[in-house]
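## retry 2 of 3
previous attempt timed out at serialization; input unchanged, resubmitting
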Amino acid sequence: MNTPNIPIEEIISKINKTEEILDGSLKNNDFETFSKTLEERFELLKQLEPFRTEITVKNIIENILKKDSERSKSIEKKMRKIKDDQFNVQVSKKAMKKGYLKIEESMSRHKINKSG
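## retry succeeded, writing output
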């Protein structure tokens, strides 16, 4: 009976490590690592499928769901910030173009006036 517990413990250990990596990558805005780690975790969770009736596995899944809910909220905040930043960049870009065109226009008029 101890033989089946060994793989569960190994899987759980790997899942715990992936959870730490997920938290770290989200904190550091490393979404590439975050995405890859989610895929790895998914594969590990598939391996827990035969043990889904065990209380330990149920508790792990519940904890993952809670953490994922928090992560989702954090990602939404980050996405809103990125969206706002993108908007500000576009506004700044337009302002720079308009400002540059006015400067360029006034410089060309000034040159014409000097030579004329």
